[in-house]
Design goal:
The protein has about 190 residues and is mainly α. The protein contains nine helices and no strands. Helix 2 (about 40-50) crosses helix 3 (about 60-75), helix 4 (about 80-90) crosses helix 8 and helix 6 packs across helix 7. It is globular. The relative contact order is 0.18.
Length: about 190
């Protein structure tokens, strides 16, 4: 699937919004994701890793990537599986992707964001930096759009009001990244009679 990166559009922000976003994107490494310690989290990590294996052959890289996606998405109040769908559409999981409008990395973040809310030494090709910016930008757009994911995705891509991009992200999320763990029902929890 080809990447369909667009470009976020600079929108003036109040000083308080800019400061809050700047604080949110201050980079710090992911050291531990407690959700991934329990059986459900381990099942999620194993399943997502398997699905991602053709795009990221190195198991260590995949685990680091998925840990970071999970951490940054949940930190911003977003669904990690939806973020995987967005990354699939934006960059095709290419760390060093650059769009025709200069958006960078997995989540195709526009460089103006670093100048607006970050510090000049932040590298948008750095995994954690890219995901932190991307997730917080999408969160900002969700807040602007009062929770309307369809419109927030349009803003994220710079295509607000056009259905193609939000539909592609939602489709990728549903087709490739939705996780439905096996759960025991009362019927299959009872051992068969001899």
């Amino acid at each position: 699937m080809a990447a369909h990166a667009g470009g976020q559009i600079y929108e003036p922000m109040s000083a308080s919004v800019r400061a809050a976003l700047g604080k949110s994107v201050a980079d710090s490494p992911v050291t531990h994701v407690s959700f991934l310690d329990n059986p459900h989290g381990q099942a999620w990590l194993a399943e997502m890793s398997q699905r991602l294996s053709k795009r990221m052959p190195d198991p260590g890289q995949r685990v680091d990537f998925l840990n970071t996606v999970y951490y940054e998405a949940t930190r911003a109040g977003l669904d990690p599986e939806m973020i995987l769908g967005l990354i699939e559409v934006e960059s095709g999981f290419k760390k060093y992707a650059i769009s025709s409008v200069s958006a960078r990395g997995y989540m195709q973040v526009m460089p103006f964001w670093v100048k607006t809310v970050g510090t000049p030494n932040q590298d948008l090709f750095h995994l954690r930096t890219n995901l932190r910016y991307g997730c917080n930008i999408l969160r900002l757009y969700l807040d602007i759009e009062k929770g309307n994911l369809y419109r927030a995705l349009g803003r994220y891509n710079g295509s607000l009001g056009k259905p193609e991009y939000p539909a592609m992200v939602l489709s990728a999320w549903q087709k490739h990244w939705t996780f439905r763990p096996f759960t025991k029902t009362a019927q299959n929890a009872i051992p068969p009679r001899s």
